[in-house]
């Protein structure tokens, strides 16, 4: 499956505030990121998400994470988001996103959850929490999944271990606290973004 963004590293900005979101997303895009996730357990996401869509929707795929129910799917769609990420496998959430023509990366941990997600229309799978399972588990589950299904490792992915997850069969990763922690200065975001992009380029070279 062709991905709707060029760099398969999703920047997860958990806890970002509306008044700082623009600066961090602008910096991430300048570094090379083109998929941004605002988790719905972040403060005032209802303000942040549409704001980012307006500012950067033509330069990056702006989306929402930690989407747990159909009402949230509808709110995310109304904000103009084009990416929807979940921590779990919920067929109704997936179907709701498909109806709204939003690209989905659905959280799963087992083969049963993975196939439930795919049968409901998921575009990609998010193996979560990746650090609890490790690359060997991902390699094993990849063996039973359709080869064209994109897998993203999320949870505990660092510049140091990113290559291991890619070698196990992931196309990319979702980057959380090792890329962004709530309240960190812009310089830290740039520094960490550059480290992840360098690690990705080294891994796929």
Task: Label this structure with key terms.
single chain; 205 residues; alpha/beta; 8-stranded parallel β-barrel
Give a description of the structure:
The chain has 205 residues and is α/β, with parallel strands linked by helices. An eight-stranded parallel barrel has the order 1-2-3-4-5-6-7-8, surrounded by five helices. β4 (83-85), α4 and β5 form a beta-alpha-beta unit. The mean pLDDT is 98. It starts with 8 loop residues before the first strand and ends with a helix. It has helices spanning 18-31, 45-56, 70-78, 91-99, 111-120, 130-142, 162-167, 186-204, and strands spanning 9-12, 35-39, 61-65, 83-85, 103-108, 124-127, 151-154, 172-175. The longest helix has 19 residues, at 186-204.
List the helices and strands and how they pair.
Layout: E1 9-12, H1 18-31, E2 35-39, H2 45-56, E3 61-65, H3 70-78, E4 83-85, H4 91-99, E5 103-108, H5 111-120, E6 124-127, H6 130-142, E7 151-154, H7 162-167, E8 172-175, H8 186-204
Parallel strand pairs: 1-2, 1-8, 2-3, 3-4, 4-5, 5-6, 6-7, 7-8
Helix pairs in contact: 1-2, 1-8, 3-4, 4-5
